[in-house]
Amino acid sequence: MPGRRHAIRGAGLLVSVALTVLGLLLVTFLIGRVVPIDPVIAVVGDRVSADTYARVRQELGLDLPLWQQFLRYVGDVLQGDFGTSVLTSRPVLEDILRVFPATLELATAALVVGVLLGIPAGVMAAVHRGRWPDHLIRVIGLIGHSIPVFWLGLMALLVFYARLDWAPGPGRVDVFYEGLVDPVTGIITVDALLAGESDVFWSALHHLVLPAGILGLYSVAYIARMTRSFMLDQLRQEYITTARVKGMSEARVIWRHALGNIAVPLTTVVALSYASLLEGSVLTETVFAWPGLGLYITNSLLSADMNAVLGGTLVVGAVFIGLNLLSDLLYRLLDPRAR
Amino acid sequence: MTAQTDTTEGGMRAWLTAETPRSRGQARLGRVYLGWLAFARNRLAMIGLGIVLLLVLMAALAPLLAPYDPYTQDLSQRLLPPSAAHWLGTDAFGRDILSRILYGSRLTLMIVALVAVTAPVAGLLIGTVAGYLGGWVDAVLMRVTDIFLAFPKLILALAFVSALGPGIENAIIAIAITSWPPYARIARAETITIRKSDFISAARLQGASTPRIILGHVVPLCSSSLIVRVTLDMAGIILTAAGLGFLGLGAQPPAPEWGAMIATGRQYVLEQWWVATMPGIAIFVVSLGFNLLGDGLRDVLDPKGQ
């Protein structure tokens, strides 16, 4: 009965995801309740009559028991109502949809850096296990784990922008090109290509290199470490010995056979590091004045705009859960042994 | 009598490495000594230990070491480059950066110590209780743990700080609240492997209560893998605290917190580079120290991780 077992396992996964999402909502709801800001005063100001105060309080549903308030909150969020931002006086969801593509662009570019550097580094470390390339990659990984990302970003701006003038300054595109292409996807590099504006595309790409490179370095260490341990497992297997005995070239054994066999677990690792890149983008965006979700959340925080903060937290949390689910599904889908 | 003379001749070393220790204390000390030998062979781990000890010394002796007061402003001395009078230069208020970094080590150490005391203890209790009792208690506790793990740590810490208000105490609380779940997972996994052991059954049959078994028998056995994990997490805690400080949500000015110092140096970074650079180097060196130390401890305490 493999089909039935699948259905049961799928249902179990769905229930667990639903519970996690509900827990996420409960946490943001409770955080919103402990804030020392009176939501009524935030709406009407503190110079209103007791009657108005009571009326607004009732309209906001604050006189209801806590569990009913929570149900209302869940209902609102599921309908896409995250409240209104005090800072921009627009619906929070609208704001988030506007800034999210910038974060997506940054995190995706950083992931490309992480994969292109991390996988070869991990393979090299495994092949030369215990010798200097392995130690070098391990130490670089440790150093990468110890540098504050915001400081490295500042230093990169100091060296590559101010001193050497190799990289453009903060922002997503040169001021000159700002607003030149219509936001279709919100991802400037893609929009510029769609509009056929190669100048804008190159400017945007140029602006992307430094922040994406810095952010990407943080996933390099993780991807390299995981690649190394997966590769070590493979290189111990007998089919590798067989391939070598057959006279296959070492490069083919390593890059095609061994690496080919770890593609599936690596996919899940990459999906997971994508999630941590979204988190790392909060600090990177602040340093590079990158107008994404991270900058939106921190700006809202500093002006005590709770709806925006909690909305942003919720979206990042949901993306996190989604990526975890995706990596789980990919693993089951791609690896025949997990079926 | 011969055994007696052996120990005195070989001195401390022989007593510690004796094949047949004659007391539990000797056996225990001997194991610690062997672990220390393995650890001391790892050069990088020793460097890490040195850095951490240096941090503790710096924090303890800050008033003696610091050449200036970290809070006194002197606008005639503002933004001076590194020189003989001010080794690391001065900041926008004319305060000596070296003195501020030295005093800042106290804040860093305090954050690390408080988080390292609270989060692992909470995780250990939740994990061992869940693993030992099993059933619905386990299901509920692990579900809660999963929910916290589903959040990106920094974002959750940001949300907590926004609710509690900025400040170093609230930053510590937020970091602690977001750090316990991995410890709970580790402790639960370890507990499950030992809860069916004979010695646990023996303790239960002797009439030991559940709290007594958990606290007296299960918790000590889960501690060593947790210590490694905590040491490896220290660097992350330092970086998160510095990140919160950088965003203006951690320690508030004029406290000489390293992350906040970078934030104030940010606007001068292109001209007066030292203001933001120096505290960053301090954060980097200290986190690297904890990472190297944790890495070495893992090799000693958990050889399968190699």
From TrEMBL, chain A:
Domain ABC transmembrane type-1: from-to ranges: 100-331
Transmembrane segments: 12-31, 106-127, 139-162, 204-224, 258-277, 308-331
UniProt entry tagged with the keyword Transport: yes
CDD domains, sorted: TM_PBP2
Membrane topology note: Multi-pass membrane protein
Major site of localization recorded for this protein: membrane
UniProt-annotated location(s): Cell membrane
Alphabetic keyword roster: Cell membrane, Membrane, Transmembrane, Transmembrane helix, Transport
Domain of life: Bacteria
Gene Ontology CC terms, in alphabetical order: plasma membrane
One Gene Ontology term of the molecular function aspect: dipeptide transmembrane transporter activity
Keyword Transport on entry: yes
Family as reported in the entry's similarity comment: Belongs to the binding-protein-dependent transport system permease family.
Protein name: Peptide/nickel transport system permease protein
TrEMBL record, chain B:
Membrane topology according to the record: Multi-pass membrane protein
ABC transmembrane type-1 domain: residues covered: 109-294
Keywords: Cell membrane, Membrane, Peptide transport, Protein transport, Transmembrane, Transmembrane helix, Transport
Keyword hit for Membrane: yes
SUPFAM superfamilies assigned: MetI-like (SSF161098)
Annotated TM spans: 44-68, 107-134, 154-178, 234-253, 273-294
GO terms classed as biological process: peptide transport; protein transport; transmembrane transport
UniProt-listed CDD domains: TM_PBP2 (cd06261)
Family matches, as PROSITE patterns: ABC_TM1
Subcellular location: Cell membrane
Coarse class of the protein's main subcellular location: membrane
Gene Ontology CC terms, in alphabetical order: plasma membrane
Coiled-coil parts of chain: none
Pfam families for this protein: BPD_transp_1 (PF00528), OppC_N (PF12911)
Family membership noted in the UniProt record: Belongs to the binding-protein-dependent transport system permease family. OppBC subfamily.
NCBIfam families noted in UniProt: Opp2C (NF045474)
Name of the protein: Peptide/nickel transport system permease protein
